[in-house]
Design goal:
The chain has 167 residues and is an alpha+beta fold. It is built from 5 helices and 6 strands, in the order ββαβααβααββ.
Length: 167
């Protein structure tokens, strides 16, 4: 995967994107099966920013999915604790491996990653996502209906944000 370092509003940010159109044998979870989940302020802010962009583009907002949120949090925490920033963990697993291992059904899936050392990691992340066609495609993907967002802080105060998109 490629990383695009950007300088946005005085914040250093690096962004990565992954998308997959791999069919999973498990059925996608119906919207009625979604439950509530408590999000951190960075997680809430990023979901709001993503949904604001979707609404402005005439798309329906994404529903926050607790299982996807757990996967996104696991991804952010693993990167923060293991000192890497990539769609592929040092042991070789990806978000799609975690989705399958957790029994989360999906047909279309994507992952956006952002890291920021600035004062507003959410604004830096959404600005960076919208400036990259691959990230923007995930944010504005019409096939996506669910989202999970995870935030973790490294020992040097870098915030790592993971966004997991599925249908």
């Amino acid at each position: 995967m490629r990383s695009w370092p950007l300088l946005l509003a005085g914040a250093a940010i690096a962004i990565l994107v992954a998308s997959s159109l791999i069919h999973s044998p498990q059925p996608a979870v119906a919207d009625s099966a979604l439950s509530t989940v408590t999000l951190s302020s960075d997680e809430t802010g990023l979901v709001a920013a993503i949904n604001a962009r979707r609404i402005a583009d005439g798309l329906v907002p994404l529903a926050v999915d607790p299982a996807l949120t757990q996967v996104a949090r696991e991804r952010s925490t693993d990167q923060a604790e293991s000192h890497y920033f990539s769609h592929t963990a040092p042991d070789g697993h990806t978000v799609f491996d975690l989705l399958s291992a957790d029994g989360i059904g999906w047909v279309y899936g994507g992952e956006n990653l952002a890291e920021s050392r600035g004062t507003d990691p959410v604004q830096a992340a959404i600005s960076g996502f919208m400036q990259s066609s691959a990230h923007r495609d995930n944010v504005l993907g019409a096939r996506y209906a669910r989202v999970g967002v995870g935030a973790a802080q490294t020992s040097d105060a870098t915030i790592i944000l993971t966004v997991v998109f599925t249908d």
